[in-house]
Specification:
Layout: H1 5-18, E1 35-44, E2 47-57, E3 62-66, H2 73-80, E4 88-93, E5 96-97, H3 101-104, E6 107-110, H4 122-132, H5 139-149, H6 165-179, E7 183-187, H7 195-210, E8 214-219, H8 222-228, E9 231-236, E10 239-245, H9 246-252, H10 258-265, H11 269-280
Parallel strand pairs: 3-8, 3-9, 6-7, 7-8
Antiparallel strand pairs: 1-2, 1-4, 4-5, 9-10
Helix pairs in contact: 4-6, 5-6, 6-7
Length: 282
């Protein structure tokens, strides 16, 4: 595990005092960000799925990757997890080189399509997750609380195959958040979720950030992103078109909502006018 910097400074102060050296200075310590991505490039065949992407997720913040299908959101998350090899750029997970087992152990992930292991029960999947990723003693308590939040306590003995797509996604959320890792990745956050579950997920993501977790959310849901994210990167064709806080983006594009920012930044206002003209002829 990456050592706690505050504790490390305290230990260095004691050592220097004991060996008769001058007292150690105590400058403010800036926490290492859970995720730093620099100039990331991932190529599939003739096209770049991710092209020269910079991204930072600070502790205690929620960052959104927002954009249409094929814009590079999922590929970015897979690169952070070490599931795809970048063609260029660097990934650091709390100061550890991305793609290594050490870095992977610092990340909890909610996939877009939670498949496989369908014959396991909810309880068995949670037990397997805790065992594989060496969860702490509080994992079971956190998981039980989250199952209650999502209304899944009664299904804890049910096989995953018997659950709806949305319920399986929520079980994946429970497993990931209960791990309490420095970095949480959530792919296509609200896919298959009903409105009540989406609201609960929003609260869970914000609660994780308030405990100091850095959260990276990939989503097409502009409303969800606007409510949950501290910062947003709008992606198109693998590149970040614009980035900033919600308030900054609204001011930059003279928009009142993130949807307005999206329309202006990605240049789709012309297509919307054409669509409305066509609909007027129906």
């Amino acid at each position: 595990m990456v050592p706690d910097q505050g504790q490390l400074l305290q230990e260095l102060t004691v050592v220097r005092r004991e060996v008769g050296g001058p007292p150690a200075a105590s400058p403010p310590v800036r926490p290492i960000p859970p995720l730093v991505v620099r100039r990331l490039r991932v190529v599939y065949g003739p096209a770049a799925a991710v092209d020269d992407l910079d991204l930072t997720v600070e502790a205690g913040t929620v960052v959104g990757l927002v954009g249409p299908n094929g814009c590079g959101k999922t590929t970015t998350l897979r690169a952070v997890l070490g599931l795809v090899e970048p063609d260029a750029g660097t990934i650091d997970v709390q100061g550890v080189r991305g793609g290594t087992l050490h870095a992977r152990a610092l990340v909890a992930s909610v996939p877009d399509e939670p498949t496989g292991l369908d014959e396991l029960s909810v309880a068995e999947l949670l037990q397997l997750t805790a065992s594989l990723w060496h969860a702490d003693r509080d994992f079971a308590r956190r998981a039980d609380l989250l199952l209650g939040v999502f209304g899944l306590r009664e299904r804890v003995r049910s096989q995953l195959v018997s659950l709806s797509h949305g319920q399986r996604r929520l079980v994946a959320v429970v497993a990931a958040v209960a791990l309490d890792r420095p970095l949480l990745l959530v792919d296509e956050a609200t896919a298959a979720l009903d409105p009540e579950a989406a609201i609960a997920l929003r609260e869970v993501v914000r609660a994780a950030a308030e405990r100091g977790t850095g959260v990276l959310v990939a989503t097409q849901d502009l409303h969800f992103a606007e409510l949950v994210c501290d910062r947003v990167s709008l992606l198109s064709a693998g590149r970040a078109v614009t980035e900033g806080t919600i308030a900054e983006l609204r001011r930059r594009y003279s928009a009142t909502t993130l949807e307005g920012v999206f329309v202006a930044a990605l240049g789709v206002s012309g297509r919307l006018r054409e669509l409305r003209d066509v609909l007027d002829t129906l």
